[in-house]
Amino acid sequence: MTPLRTGLLAAVLASMSACVTINVYFPAAAAEKAADRIIDDVWGSADQPLVPGPVPATPEPTSSLGSALQAVALRALDVLIPAAQAAEPNIDISSPEIVRLKTLMERRFAELKPLMSAGTVGLTADGYVTVRDPAAVPLASRNAVRTLVANENSDRAALYREIATANGQPQWEAQIREVFASRWIAKAQAGWWYQDVNGAWAQK
Amino acid sequence: MRHPYWFAMLCLSFAADAVDRVELSVGRIEGADWRIESMRADWRTDGAAEVELGSLTHAASPVGPARVRLRCPLLRSAAIGCDGLAAQVEVADLGTLDAVVDLSANASGRWRADLRRADLLLSYNSADGRIAADQLHLSLQGRASAASATQTLEWQLRTLGGQAYVEPAFFDFGVHPLRFDGRAIRPATGPVRVERLQIEQTGIGTLTARGEVDPAQALAHHRVAIELSLANAAAAAELYLRPFLATTPLHDLELAGTAALRADVRDGALQQLHIDVDDMTVAAPGPAVVLNGLNGALNWQTQTPVQGSVLRWREGVVGRIPLGAAQLDFATAARDFALTAPARLPVLDGALELKRFVLSDIGNEQMGADVQMQLLPIDLPALCRALGWPEFAGTLAGTLPGLRLRERRLDIDGTLTAAAFDGQIEVRNLSVIEPFGPLPRVKADLRLRRLDLAAVTGAFDFGRITGRLDGDFDGLRLIGWEPVAMNARLYSSADDDSPRRISQRAIDSISSIGGGPTGLLSRGFFSVFDDFAYARIGWSCVLDNGVCRMNGIGPAKRRSGGGSNGYVLVQGRGLPRIDVVGYSTQVSWPVFLAQLKGIGKSGPAQVSSELR
Asked: Which chain A residue's Cα is nearest to B610?
């Protein structure tokens, strides 16, 4: 009966450890702040500080290699690690995957924005975009719009997954998507369309 | 008609002696899910008859009400029929039909309808926007007849202009008009026989089909043989292939040349496929693959693998690397692909030998690969030229005994070895994460052994260092070919007794990478020396989230004036003894890279060093 008992014990331990994982507290407020920062980057925001360019090397003739290196590094780190990120609890959004996805979405936004302003494309209640008014698209560009929306959605899905992964909590993916869903809508520009939880369309 | 409600009004006009004309007007006829409003029927003794439905609506119809007008110049009563029946139908949200038909029927069940001409003008938009037509102008001719319970249908359809969208394909019939002809026979029992069906689109190609279709379940129950001949693969790819690939890495696929295809379809599923390609060009700018002069035949079927498929190409390019003429012999079935003979793909002056190449469940989540290949030595200078890199001597070779594709991750067994700079570079544990996803990532471990530093620094505009260098790059992770994570270490080879010298320029370069001050050594006393002896070189970087945690050989001695502890990058030897010391432990990776690229482009060297 020993193997059975060992098996039972293992199962109990496994379920206990599983419980611990599930009960990890989801930092909703931090997730909202993280979502806002990403949304500001992707959509661009008026009150956002200008993105600093590469820090120029300003050699000080008499200083040593080390101190100059340090100066550059410190200034670079100021850029990399904003003060807000130091607060706890936190959602880390600085992984290279997230930065890359953000850049892809930021580039795509130039094409997506006119469609959102015209009401052709709208925000869904589950954190994605969809074609709201297909009839408004000329037949020749209908597939291009469909592709744009599909690519945006696959990047968004990857973004939600990568944020969860980067924070070591893959099971947060759905919660992160929910947070984003409400933040995309909250930060939408006037005139854009969005879907409420019942699927009904409303205009900001 | 189960519960018809009649709101009718009869107006019969009688002459004194005989009926001259009968006119019937009905205000509304209603069924369970349909309704006719303002119906008018008119019959005159000279044989002319007319029926007009002001509005016909059906609850299940996705389009608006129809207005129908039928006019017969002479209604025959002996053999029931009408020659030159003019039909006009106008359907809101859909379009108009204008047709002339000759109809005849007799009591024995024979009938015949000759559609002399029909003009259709359609503008339609389905609610989800996936099917639409804009000013689509069609002309239709045809004949339907029935004799001894066998019905025959023949038609010729032409597009005269307009556009259509059937997700994801877009058709501009003004540019590429289409003809759709066919003939089908429906016997008293059994399936409908499609004797001939031909679709021809100007400037693209022709599709012909024949087969049998169950009239009750046409989509679920059929057997059809299709032949497709593509006269212009370029236009076919643009119109019919690219729309389907729009969300994949092959979204900008280009084809040129001609191709022919034969397929058997049963009950909605492809059973057999045979493709012949003749002098075709395939270009996929996304993954940067081009194959020219593609010839061959592909045989595929659902179950047992068919032998005898072959593809040859005259030349090609992968990335920026040219590929020579090659031939692949393979067998395919279902979602599987296997080489039946080893293949040799010439790459520059070397070759990639595919000894085994088997893919299973292609396109599925659980897609698998069983691959064994060998890279025969490639000359590095030619490879560097092709890639636009600084040229350096050496060869690249390797054996890749296996490759596995599991759970969105491609793992490559074996080691790629480059003999370069008189030393060895090894790539191990190579894997690609989500190779077909939006964010492909490459992971690998790199080993550098006994690289001749004189050759390395000579290839790059860096200044001269002699001696040997080892390096370990563990957990190297690349996104878009840029390193985003690694644990890197470069250090002087332990078992090396060659002379170790470093030039002023190289010291400047090391310094300028860090954005440090340079030029100190070129002034004053040290300007007498071209280079200096060193004991060891060492540099390490743990890259994570855009920040490189840097270190050197070990901690530097505390300076006389105090200050923070640094680490030694270059440890000098003899006299004059020069140590290069770094102080920054956290460096922004993008800034570091920018400084590295800037070497050789900036002006005269300035200096940085710790003098002791």
From this structure: A64
